[in-house]
Write a structure and sequence with these properties.
Strand order of the largest sheet: 10-11-12-13-14-15-16-17-18
Largest sheet: 9 strands, mixed
Strand content: 15-25%
Structural class: alpha+beta
Number of helices: 32
Number of strands: 40
């Protein structure tokens, strides 16, 4: 790259070059010197030669731990670990002062973070956050500096708060501290607050719950005359396993027997139980036998439970006689041993011990079971489980399976006996290497990090698929299945699952990269037809996605599975598997299957279509991994995988119809809301429609013709959707991509259809002829000193002849009796690495699509949605298409900040946002609308389309108004300056009175709001008729020109702009709006003229 840079000097003299043209230079190297005509005019900087002696006293660091903690919370680096410092603080104060000191620590933390949290929730960039804080503290910039210093040490300050909460785990808390902890729970999960917020919630719940002893006494009272059905329905905090296991050692036989019955019923809740009998030989010496049946199966298998006072009792059970027979011949029986901690010898290795002690007991159990294998086989025992009580904590569970030679199964560890089957953990472990992630938020939740097991058929050298966070949940409560209750049916559970995903991502082993998968099993049965349940599930998922789509995308949810029993009471006749999956490429597409289960394991083995009864197969792990890889790449680029936008559009159309009907709309809801067909190039280079699964494209561009049945066009309207596929070559534009883009845009233009571009790319593809690189030689000016530069690049004679004429253009020179072929140009024809273009071909294609886009804007409606970074020609296309919706994390840039920093020789820019983020593109009029997520982006696209005719020759769509045409306009402009938006859209007074505006309620959509603020432009509907609007801002506004990071002396410039006056930017904005209204939108124009 050649650079011409001006060098300015404040004095005259003679310049001497130390480096000539073509030299290799590095940052900081001297290129030349200046010999001054008058050296006395310039003070020369010389190295300091004297002794350094401090002239002021140096303050010793604060010795008081409280003062040190305060300094850490103010943003200063601690002299020791944050946790150790907090421990030293609480060790230095009296116990009665703990609550007060802790409250002061939390309040000092919140004094900073409560300033940042609301801005973080709005997905503001760092620059936007500090700009907002500066505007709020114009008279006290030192306050912003202090906030910035503290915020810079957020991770250390978080450690202080977490250590403080841990110090309070066993204390009774005062109301002031509880108030502070509750304020911590209100911090958002993003922005670095996730762990603090979630841990604070756990501690808040713990502080608010009754002590263990009180809960145990209350449950004991109930067990004296038990109502087992009522106890089974009680919350886990009131009748959980830790409470019931503790009561197995009670002095009362009645209480012990009832506790064991209640514990078994809780373990096998929603299972069919029969012949439950309990015998008691004293405290912690009970036994029970019963039969049970997995939901949805017919097999009754035998089970035996023994309660023993210590781990030695486990040995006695294994070595003793098992009063069981293999009556079914299927080896389906189970044995459970409950070790009641209460009467255990204190010298025993208790279950409050370390993980190593637990593993030691596990190893002993495995050896004993392997030694008794023959006896266990005769008794038909399939599973042997050990339950280890450790009140007041939850019991620990270990499961040993016969088919695994009585080895403990880690994937089933610390799970209640029935949960592995109900949560399909065994099937998960067959396809994935899973690692359990703890702690979790809910008692009935399990979270795993899984990576797909290697596939022998998979090509070598491919990037490993991303891991997946698997959240598995079980619930025994099901809300009413009435018509009105379905929209909120499992919403709370799925939101809890998202909480689990967010909590898991705080674990360093997980992080933000893995995708996520949610599985929930509803144990209560539903007495409805499976087809009706499937239909209601689709309604619910569409509503849930439209409501929480942003959070689903942030959590990278690829699949949601809900299992529901069909039947009445405890009798399950069928099991319905309801799935919303993106595994096929379409965003969370719903489907329903009926399951058939293995009678021995209780695991699903067959699946059948609800409508036809035909057998179906679940998506293979290999197919899932392929799609997960693509989605992961798109998400890492800050975007969404392109085909998933199709499903998001469908969900948004459903939302539009719901809002229309809720407002009193009379049009009938369309039956087929959304259809799409892919457009691709055939062998003849022409565009054709194809019906294929998403994700099969082999170039970085995809296009669809989409039919949308919206309230404006219930019979359907067509649009052309063109999207960069960022998962292919980073979404770069090559020859094939340019051709498809041009043909698809032309397809829209010829038919007059709206053309939408989803932009997420890396600009024109620039590559290298990789096969040529190892053979290129350099002819140096001085081979001993490469810094003097080179004469030319060349190929040796043998290499030149091997590559042929199409690869390089070169001329022959003779050097020391041998031939060198000096490279004049590299063509790369016929090489694998240059297939699809690597340089000038792609730039030629960039010119082609730039011209096509400019032409399309003049003929049809064009709109670009910047969903991720858009670079080079990608940024030009957005500007040439004129109308731009920008996602807050989607910068439009010509080159990256890293390249500019290298060019400037120093780190000037710190992010792409400084070059083309919202803080640049909104104030300069490139971005018409700004959105926070892709869900909001899809909403903005459809909102804009509601004003646009179905083709360029039609008038805009007229939708009967739900706001009466005969209504009065109750907002009256005042003589004093007012917000013109209130006149256009209406407003609500501080007293709560609604003042109606000029246009239909809720229809005004402003655009270009951050640019040329002395004019307001947008679109609205008047009596259902779409209208383009230009109104005058009557208030005084500010035009802000941000400081240039490349110029250290520059400062932000604030230019006041008087109301009712056209300035250059607002005049240009007015012209831009009129042009947009007229091209492709065909909108009538209404100007509220109020200029001076």
């Amino acid at each position: 790259m050649k650079m011409i840079m001006p060098v300015k000097a404040s004095a005259s003299g003679k310049v001497s070059h130390t480096r000539g043209a073509g030299s290799i230079v590095s940052a900081g190297e001297i290129l030349g010197t200046l010999e001054l005509d008058d050296p006395s005019k310039v003070k020369k900087i010389l190295p300091f030669q004297g002794d350094f002696a401090p002239t002021c006293g140096v303050e010793a660091p604060a010795a008081d731990p409280k003062e040190q903690v305060d300094l850490v919370l103010d943003g200063y680096a601690p002299s020791e670990g944050a946790s150790e410092l907090v421990q030293r603080l609480f060790a230095s104060i009296a116990t009665e002062d703990f609550d007060q000191v802790a409250s002061e620590v939390v309040d000092r933390y919140l004094a900073v973070e409560e300033k940042f949290a609301p801005l973080v929730q709005q997905n503001m960039t760092t620059d936007q956050v500090y700009t907002t804080l500066i505007n709020e503290n114009k008279d006290s910039l030192s306050t912003v500096a202090a906030l910035a210093l503290a915020r810079s040490q957020l991770s250390t300050r978080n450690e202080v708060i977490l250590a403080t909460l841990r110090s309070l785990s066993s204390l009774s808390t005062v109301s002031s501290l509880m108030t502070s902890v509750n304020r911590l729970t209100e911090l958002p999960s993003q922005g670095g607050y996730g762990e603090v917020s979630l841990i604070a919630k756990q501690y808040a719940e713990k502080f608010a719950s009754k002590p263990f002893g009180e809960r145990k006494a209350a449950l004991r009272s109930l067990l004296e005359s038990p109502d087992f059905e009522a106890i089974a329905k009680m919350r886990a905090t009131e009748a959980g396993a830790e409470l019931l296991a503790e009561l197995l050692g009670d002095d009362s036989e009645q209480v012990r027997v009832a506790a064991l019955k209640a514990l078994i019923q809780r373990f096998y809740r929603s299972f069919t139980l029969a012949d439950l009998e309990v015998s008691d030989s004293g405290p912690s010496k009970l036994s029970a036998s019963f039969k049970f049946q997995f939901p949805g199966t017919d097999l009754l298998r035998e089970a035996m439970v023994k309660v023993v006072p210590s781990f030695d009792g486990v040995k006695d059970v294994i070595n003793g006689s098992l009063d069981m027979t293999d009556s079914t011949g299927l080896r389906a029986n189970t044995v459970k041993v409950i070790v009641s901690q209460q009467l255990a010898d204190k010298n025993d290795k208790g279950f409050h011990g370390t993980e190593d002690e637990f593993l030691e007991m596990r190893d002993q159990t495995e050896v004993m079971l392997q030694g008794a294998s023959e006896k266990l086989t005769e008794a038909g025992v399939r599973e042997f489980g050990v339950v280890m009580a450790q009140a007041p904590q939850l019991p620990r569970y270990a499961s040993f399976m016969a088919k695994e030679n009585w080895k403990e199964n880690p994937s089933r560890r610390d799970m209640r006996p029935t949960m592995p089957s109900l949560l399909e953990v065994n099937q998960l472990a067959e396809d994935f290497n899973i690692e359990r992630i703890i702690p979790v938020i809910g008692r009935n939740s399990q979270v795993y990090l899984g990576t797909a097991k290697p596939n022998d058929e998979a090509p070598r050298g491919k990037r490993a698929p991303p891991g997946t966070v698997f959240v598995r949940m079980i619930t025994h409560t099901l809300k009413s299945f009435s018509e009105d209750g379905w929209t909120a049916w499992p919403e709370a559970l799925l939101l809890s699952a998202l909480d689990e995903v967010e909590r898991a991502r705080l674990n360093p082993k997980v992080g933000t990269r893995p995708n996520s998968n949610i599985f929930a099993h509803f144990m209560s049965n539903v007495d409805m037809d499976p087809k009706e349940v499937d239909s209601k599930f689709e309604e619910f998922m569409n509503s849930f996605v439209s409501k929480h789509g942003g959070r689903l995308q942030k959590s990278k949810v690829d699949e949601i599975v809900l299992k529901v029993g069909i039947g009445s009471g405890t009798e399950r006749k069928q099991t319905l598997r309801l799935t919303a999956s993106s595994m096929t490429g379409e965003y969370l597409r719903t489907s329903g299957l009926l399951e058939k289960h293995d009678p021995v394991t209780g695991s699903p083995v067959q699946w059948f279509d609800i409508a036809t009864g035909e057998e179906r197969q679940l998506t293979s792990v290999q197919s899932q991994s392929r799609m997960q890889m693509r989605r992961s790449i798109a998400r890492n680029a800050g975007s969404t995988y392109a085909p998933e936008f199709l499903g998001m559009i469908k969900v948004e159309i459903i939302k539009k119809w719901q809002a229309y009907k809720a407002a009193g709309g009379k049009r009938e809801v369309a039956t087929d809301l959304f259809k799409s067909v892919e457009l691709m190039m055939n062998a003849d280079g022409e565009l054709e429609e194809v019906d294929r699964e998403p994700g099969l494209n082999n170039i970085g561009m995809v296009a669809w013709r989409c039919t949308l049945e919206t309230p404006e066009y219930p019979q359907g309207r067509d649009i052309i959707l063109i999207a960069n596929d960022v998962t292919h070559e980073a979404g770069s534009f090559g020859v094939a991509e340019d051709e498809l883009f041009q043909k698809a845009s032309e397809y829209a233009r010829v038919r007059g259809l709206p053309r939408i571009h989803l932009a997420c790319n890396s600009g024109a593809r620039v590559g290298l002829a990789e096969e040529l690189k190892p053979h290129v030689k350099v002819h140096w000016v001085d081979a001993a000193d490469p810094s003097k530069g080179f004469k030319y690049l060349y190929l040796e004679e043998e290499d030149y002849k091997n590559f042929g004429e199409g690869v390089v253009q070169a001329h022959e020179v003779a050097v020391n009796g041998r031939k060198e072929y000096v490279i004049d140009a590299i063509i790369g024809e016929g090489l694998k690495s240059t297939k699809g273009g690597i340089g000038v071909e792609n730039l030629k294609g960039s010119g082609l699509i730039a011209g096509e886009t400019a032409r399309a804007y003049n003929e049809v409606f064009t709109l670009s949605y910047v969903t991720g970074r858009s670079v080079g020609i990608g940024a030009y296309l957005n500007r040439l298409g004129q109308r731009v919706i920008q996602m807050v994390n989607g910068p439009m840039i010509l080159t990256g900040f890293g390249a500019l920093n290298k060019l400037l020789g120093k780190n000037v820019y710190t992010s792409q946002d400084q070059l083309g983020g919202p803080q640049v593109m909104v104030p300069n009029g490139v971005t018409h609308q700004l959105v926070q997520s892709d869900n909001e982006g899809v909403t903005a696209i459809l909102d804009w389309l509601s004003f646009v005719p179905k083709d360029a020759s039609c008038t805009p769509p007229i939708l009967e108004p739900t706001d009466p045409v005969s209504r009065d306009v109750t907002f009256v402009p005042s003589k004093r300056p007012y917000d013109p938006r209130h006149m256009l859209a209406g407003t609500t007074t501080p007293e709560g009175t609604r003042l109606t505006g000029f246009f239909d309620n809720g229809t005004f959509q402003e655009s270009l709001g951050g640019w040329g603020k002395s004019v307001v432009v947008g679109r609205a509907k008047l009596g259902g008729v779409p209208v383009g609007i230009i109104a005058v801002e009557t208030r005084n506004m500010d035009r802000r020109v941000p400081a240039d990071p490349a110029n250290p002396t520059s400062q932000e410039v604030v230019e006041p702009q008087a109301g009712q006056v056209w300035f250059p930017d607002s005049a240009f904005k007015t012209a831009t709006a009129i042009k947009d209204f007229n091209r492709g939108e065909n909108l009538p124009l209404m100007i509220f003229a109020n200029w001076r």
